[in-house]
Each structure stands twice: as C-alpha cells, then as structure tokens.
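Table S2 (continued). Query chain:
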Amino acid sequence: MGFNFLIGLLIARISDVQEYGIITLMITNGAVFHIVAGLGTDQALIWHGAGKAFDPNKLFTFTLLSAIIELSLFIIASVIFRHTYDKLLLSGQPTSFFFYELIYFTGVMALDKYSSLMYANHQAVPANRFLTFSTLILLTVLALTIISGNKFSYTPLQLYCLLIFVQAISTMIFYHINNSKLQFSFFSKENLRSFFNFSILVFITNFIQFIAYRLDYWLIEYYRGADALGVYAQAGRFAQLLWVLPNILAALAAPALLSPQKNYGEKQISDLLRKLNLYNLVLIFLITVGALFLYTFFLPSYSAGFKALLLMIPGFYFFCTVLLIASFFSAKRMLWINFAGSVFCLILILVTDLLLIPLLGINGAAIANTISYLGSALFNIYFFTKYTGLQFSHLFRFSSEDWKWPGNKLAS
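Corresponding output:
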C-alpha cells in the first residue's frame, strides 16, 4: 500500500490537476461498480474460508463464478453507457479509451478477489510479501518510464490502467502456483444460502459506506470541476496514509478471530486499537511534514490542498478505529451494527457536504469529513464498548507498554 501511494505520487507528478481529477473519478466510479456488481462476495469468501465453513475448492469456484458475472455486468453496462452518452462509464473519456477502462476494472476486480482468496486460506503473509514485491517492481517500471521520457507516449491514465492490470495477472499466477491442486467443486443450496445471506448485507453496508466516503468527490467535481477534484484527491491520498495499517490489520483480524486454532478475541482487538491510536498520532506528524515537503518541491500545482489536508486529518485519525471495529463485528456476524454505522455516516456526510462544499469548496469537504468520521467513530466505539464491557478510555489511555507492537500474532 505504501508503494501504491508512491505510484500515485508519480502519476500525479506527470499529470496536470485536471487529468489527475479524471483518474480519481475513474478510480471512484470503478470502485462503486465493483461494490455493486460484486455483491459483497469478497468478504463472504474471507468469512467462510477463514472459519473453515468452505474448503479451498468451493472458495475458488465461488470466486471464479462471481468474477465472470461481475466482468460480464461491467461490459454490458459499459456498452450501454457508451452508446447512450458517447463516452466511457468510469472516466467519462472518449470511447477510444474503452480498452484501458476494461483492463483497469478487470485488474481491480481480480486483485480484490485473489487477495480475499489468500486471506480466506490463511495465506496472508505470503500474499502480502508477493504484493509488496510486485508493487515495488511496478513502481520501478513507472519511474524508469518517466525518466526515459515515456517513449511509448502513454497518457498517465493509460499507464495507471496498465500497471493495475499487470499486478492483477501476476497475483493470479502467484496464487495458482501455490495452490496448483485446485479444482471446481459443486455446492449445495445451503452453501449458497449461507454465502449470499452474508454477502448481501455486506454489499449493502459497503455500498452505503463507500458512497459516504466518496460523495465529496462527486460534489466537488459538480460544484468546482475536475481541477479542484484533482487537488482535493491528492490531499485525500496523504490523509489516507493513516488508513494503510488499519486496513491491513482489519483484513488480518477477521481470519484471526474466526480461526479455531487462534486464541484471539475482544481483549486482543481492544489492545490493538489502543496501540494503533497511539502510533497514528506519530504518523499524523510525519504525514503533515512529508506532505508539506512534497507540496513545496514535488507537487507545487497541488499545494492548495494542504489546508484541506490539515482540516480533514483529525477525522481520518478517528475513523481508523471504525475500520478495525467493523472487522470485529463482521467476524462476529453482527453485521447490523456495521450497516447502521454506515447509514449514520452517510447521513452525516450528506448533510455536511451539501452545506459546506458549495460555500467552501475543498476546505468545506475536508471539514465535513472530520465531522462525519468523528461521529461515525463515536457510534462504533459505543457499540464496541457495550458489547465487550470495556471502557471508552481503554482505547485511548496510553502507556509505555503500548510501544511494544504485538508482532505477527494476527498473521501467524
């Protein structure tokens, strides 16, 4: 994820703010379509695999079928949108870019599904090692392409699409090399019912939450244009560095909580939350200093986003707790709490965005983020403390022992 952030920096460097805004719009719309067409199957794979409800053959069969359905829906929707509006579904660009949108979406979908497969099979460590190595290779290729003057004359959007697709293909090859004995497996009606009962509620929750995350992008693009969106999106990428570690830990937490071989429960999750909150205070300082340096010397055309970054980063800090708590409730199959929290967050951000973005632009969106993410964090922390019996202060009462990171307990 860190190397992906550096790839994003290089793409921003070779793009003007409007072009970067278009790339951001493609990423956002692609993620929405992936959530809608995927129906929450990726998280259902992790839950059923990590808990040993399905064997690897059934997991692979579900993955392949859901991928075929999702890609077919994307092609159909893209063709209809293209013939109706004479532009592309994700980026709004001319129809000559269709091939790149297709390989971009295919790459995003394959990366998510195969990552979920590896997490479901308790292969998180080799998965993350390979993804780190492959992303570093892509970062190096991108840097060399830029240094050489981009002799193939790819646009930043085309380069980004190609990089995602290549990483997805390499991840698929890596998975099948390490799981060469997989075969198709039949599944019963009970299997389907269990799988889709879980995935549908996850899908609804994820869809609502993602709309809440990215509503500001659409409203900024509507009120202020692609230039403002490009500046705001880059500020958001700096703030999202706070979510790198929580997202990784959340992905590892669900299999650890579900595994009958691991003694991992509420106390361990709460300790992890407290340590995470402490480390992120240090990370906020590093992000702020690093962003100021990069805005000054590397991305001067995006520097108007620094104020927005300072305004949004407190909200991103508090929302880190939501990412891990949501994983806990998902593992406990208390999905209604995640659903209610997502609805609450959407309402908050809808109201604050509509009030503040027309008046203050990207700074209004940043303030809206902080208000909404703080409210969402308090909502989730309340139910977490109510369920576990722990006190609110336990998540934020730091001690010298909290500097001792729990090592590989989640991934081992």
